[in-house]
Amino acid sequence: MRIGMITGEYPPLEGGVGDFTRELGMALRADSHEVHILTARLNDRQPSPVEEAGLKIYQDIYDWNRSTHTDITRWINTLALDVVNIQYQAAAYQMRGGINFYPRAQKRHLTAPIVVTYHDLLPPYLFPKAGPLRQWAVRQLAQHADGIIVTNDDDYTVLTTAMERSLPPTRLIPIGSNIAPQPPASYDREGWRAARGIYPNDILIGFFGFLNHGKGVETLIDALGQLIAAGLPAHLIFIGGRTGSSDSTNACYADEIDALIEKGGLSTRVQRTGYTTPAEVSAALLAVDICALPYRGGASLRHGTLHAALAHGNAIVTTTPQTETPQLQHGKNVMLVPPENTTALANALRRLWMESHLRADIGQQAAQLSREFSWERIAARTAEFFRAIVKNMQNQ
């Protein structure tokens, strides 16, 4: 198939949706599909398209508002694509609502069906005091698409409940890890830790992902303070970029976290890798003893950071999902604690450190679970759904 993918962000821009698009595109290409990716224009714009790993990347969109609709349609029709896959996350599109109304405005001009992949259901900004219209914009995208992919049970439940009319064909296809367990060739775990002042008996807790309000990082900082106050040799490392490229509002939250660390006298116990290569991120994930991901809204398989921790066989402490997620089993492949509960988080971290066999068993089970979310499987299921949508369109 000739597959077009539209994403508001793409490497070298920092962001999980861009990383997802690249990983899925490469997996589809490995399965003999032709993949074209339309994304945001960079300041140092290169001639379009740029070819990378067999993918053709068009960095052509300057602003994701309605004025770009005709440009997107021209791109789709000129390439004679078989199917178009919009990767939706409001923040990735500068919080603009243009992409939300694209299928409704342009569908009659297209020869290819549109499949929307929802990475979350957060609404765009639109305009001041837009109120309920913001969520209506999210539903508009679903109502006028030819097919929908959701990445987790939570979003499927919310989307189907909120829709005023039935959804087009919908498929639940989880995401995978955008960080493979592949550290640099010279990687030595103990040497890596020693170079950062982490000794064999120290507890190194890792947090992976951008800082934003939904990550519950203040709970982790408070838990770290409790562990240190109890005399445990605990350290925390923030792995990866600070706030990402798409949502500038995260900078204020990151500043609040910095202030909380300083106020608690924890600066000497906290380190940061900063934005770095996938190999260096992998090295850090392999170096930690425990990965703490205290999502404020509960753990979800929509989170690429959770998938990365699973893939690296981390002993993970995260928060209880809002919607039942049978893949995440407390005490078997993760430790689950209530969101925004500092004491519960600290106790779980302490228990995993004290019970090394439990820590090792949970890490092994996490790595085993991650095999269910390989990119080969994800690409195969996605291509199968695309073919079904194309067939539906041809039969109409």
How would you spell out the order of helices and strands? EHEEEHEHEHEHEHEHEHEHEHEEHHH
Number of individual domains: 2
Percentage beta strand = 15-25%
CATH class of the largest domain reads Alpha Beta
| Overall shape | globular
Number of strands: 14
Strand arrangement in the largest pleated sheet = 3-4-2-1-5-6-7-8
Main structural class? alpha/beta
CATH architecture of the largest domain, by name, is: 3-Layer(aba) Sandwich
- Give the proportion of residues in helices: 25-40%
Largest sheet: 8 strands, mixed
Number of helical segments with 4 or more residues: 13
CATH superfamily of the largest domain: Glycogen Phosphorylase B
Q: Distance between the terminal alpha carbons, to the nearest Å?
A: 20 Å
Integer-rounded radius of gyration: 21 Å
Mean pLDDT: 91
Low-confidence stretches: none
CATH topology of the largest domain: Rossmann fold
Features:
396 residues; alpha/beta; Rossmann fold; 2 domains; eight-stranded mixed sheet; six-stranded parallel sheet; globular
Structural account:
By secondary structure, this protein is an alpha/beta fold. The chain has two domains: 2-176 and 374-395, Glycogen Phosphorylase B (Rossmann fold, 3-Layer(aba) Sandwich), CATH 3.40.50; 189-373, Glycogen Phosphorylase B (Rossmann fold), CATH 3.40.50. Helices cover 39% and strands 17% of the residues. It has 13 helices and 14 strands. The protein has an eight-stranded mixed sheet with strand order 3-4-2-1-5-6-7-8, sandwiched between helices. A six-stranded parallel sheet has the order 11-10-9-12-13-14, sandwiched between helices. It is globular, with a radius of gyration of 21 Å. The two termini are 20 Å apart. 44% of the residues are buried. The mean pLDDT is 91.
